[in-house]
Amino acid sequence: MPIPFISRRHNKDLLDQCKGQLEQIRVKSEILAICPQTTGYNWLGVNIATKSLFPKATFEIPQSYSNSILTDSELNSLCKTINELDFKQVIFSGFPRYFFNISGSLNSNISQKVIFHGFLAEFAGNVEQQGIFTEIINCCQKGIITSLGFVKKGLGLSTQQRFSIPCFEIILPNNTIKEEVPELSSDINIGCLVNNSFRKNIHNQAMAASMIENATIHLFNNEELDYLKIPKKKMYELMEHRVFFDLIGSMSLNMHVTFSEGMGGQVCAESISQGVPCISGNTSSFFDYNEDLKSQLVVCGADDSWQIFMKIEDILANHSAISKECILYAKLLNVLSEERTAKFLDS
């Protein structure tokens, strides 16, 4: 269960709870993966991704947005516990600035690694993220951080070439894959379940989906889309991940045609693992390991609602065959994920 919001003040019970979680993880794993607690959508993708990569080793550190709830002295006490438990590796998955405080308090015999879930496009006008990235690179060059992993395809290769540090590409796994292909119902349901940030491109996707006759469009609550006068729609509030996973699995198809994507699209991964096709944009590398699916599910014109609409029609016309291939692709990605994560951990 997520830790409820508590203001940043001395809180012995919360600190004791965190130490207890660390002790439980150490019984099962000599690796500790630290990821930020979510606040609404903030850090949600990183949080889910970390738990999928390290289901037995993830410690969700209490925070509000990107600010630690624990005081500096409490963070130091937490680090002392990590040192005493003799973890062999600490993996920082996602990196709010206060993670540098944790890194600086760990014993030198603990191998520190970072999985960076961001991407360069989001650095525009974001001095804070630019600074964090620079400091991570500096820590790698000094040997404090021994390995740096990226979920954005190509960014690891670029960073390794540019800064001469060891970098790895991480592929996120699916922990649940269905074996049976869902039949396409006469009731068409299209998931446009992304938030309203500019890069998520919800307006183009909602316009395209609304042109499918008699289809029900599933959206997060968003009054900005009222101008489209979508004839059939269902609206949702932020929900628990398990509920969201089941929801996208109940769709005829899902959409994730974004302008820029760091992780390639967790919606894509969780959709295809249930045999539900998911349309992606060509700014994502998610379907790069299967040319057939790439041609069937990737839209070249992410800012072109008509192109997206035609892609939806093509998918609905070939739904059964695409669904079968989606499940096979989800299994392939799990194999690739395991191989690449092992290389990262062994580095």
Could you spell the SSE succession in H and E letters?
A: HEHEEEHEHEHEHEEHEEHEHEHEHH
> In oligomeric terms, what are we looking at?
single chain
Q: Could you say how many structural domains there are in total? A: 2
The N- to C-terminal Cα distance equals: 32 Å
Question: Number of helix segments?
Answer: 12
Q: Give the proportion of residues in helices.
A: 40-55%
Low-confidence stretches: 1-8
Shape: elongated
SS-based structural class?
Answer: alpha/beta
- Give me the side-by-side strand order of the main sheet: 2-1-5-6-7-8
Overall pLDDT level = 93
Our Rg estimate from Cα atoms comes to 21 Å
The CATH class of the largest domain is identified as Alpha Beta
Largest sheet: 6 strands, parallel
Task: Give the CATH topology of the largest domain.
Answer: Rossmann fold
Task: Give the tally of β-strands.
Answer: 14
Descriptive notes:
This protein has 347 residues and is α/β, with parallel strands linked by helices. Helices cover 41% and strands 16% of the residues. The strands form three sheets. A six-stranded parallel beta sheet has the order 2-1-5-6-7-8, with helices on both faces. Strand 3 (63-64) and strand 4 (67-68) form a beta hairpin. Helix 1 packs parallel to helix 3 (72-84) and helix 7 (202-210) packs across helix 11 (305-317). It is elongated.
Topology:
Layout: H1 12-28, E1 31-36, H2 44-53, E2 58-61, E3 63-64, E4 67-68, H3 72-84, E5 89-93, H4 99-104, E6 111-116, H5 127-141, E7 145-150, H6 155-163, E8 167-169, E9 189-192, H7 202-210, E10 216-220, E11 233-236, H8 241-249, E12 253-256, H9 266-272, E13 278-281, H10 291-297, E14 298-299, H11 305-317, H12 319-346
Parallel strand pairs: 1-2, 1-5, 5-6, 6-7, 7-8, 9-10, 9-12, 10-11, 12-13, 13-14
Antiparallel strand pairs: 3-4
Helix pairs in contact: 1-3, 7-11
